[in-house]
Amino acid sequence: MDLKSAEIEEGYTMDAVASRQGLLMDVREKLLFEPEYAGNIKEKIPPKSSLRIPWAWLPGALCLLQEVGEVKLVQDIGRVAVQHPDAKPYVHDLLLSLAPAECGTAKIGFEKNKVSQGFEALARAQSLLRSKKSLGNIALLSQIEESLEELAPLAHWNC
């Protein structure tokens, strides 16, 4: 329920925002009323059924995964999804989910003093956002570009 009321990253389409809300409510209902969906952690019983997510809800699902810190999962799913022909109507939101995931990877790299890895992840995020004209004016892109400019001498020095 905290996620339901949380603000999401700027730039998502209203369809992605609506699918995020729908997905949250669907998962909540399944967790509350379908014990086979949730399994039981205490008794080490894995879930018996999976959640099927339609293409229209995938951007919302990636947005949620990003919000809860599942950066690697967002990257793995998102990279495959944007290549799929069925993803075309959702590419804006899929790329918008991938870019912050790359920023998360950059943050981890910088925290581990792996400056070049962090720099590369920021560059990938920038490239993702620049690849779609509709993402060219979001604040995240300008923040990434400012960070890259500030980090360029440091990344060059560490090479």
From TrEMBL:
Residue ranges of every copy of the Plastid division protein CDP1-like 1st alpha solenoid domain listed in the record: 52-153
GO BP: chloroplast fission
GO CC term (a single one): chloroplast inner membrane
Source domain of life: Eukaryota
InterPro entries reported in the protein's UniProt record: CDP1-like_a_solenoid_1, CPD1-like
Transmembrane segments: none
Pfam families from the UniProt entry: Arm_PDR
Protein's recorded name: Plastid division protein CDP1-like 1st alpha solenoid domain-containing protein
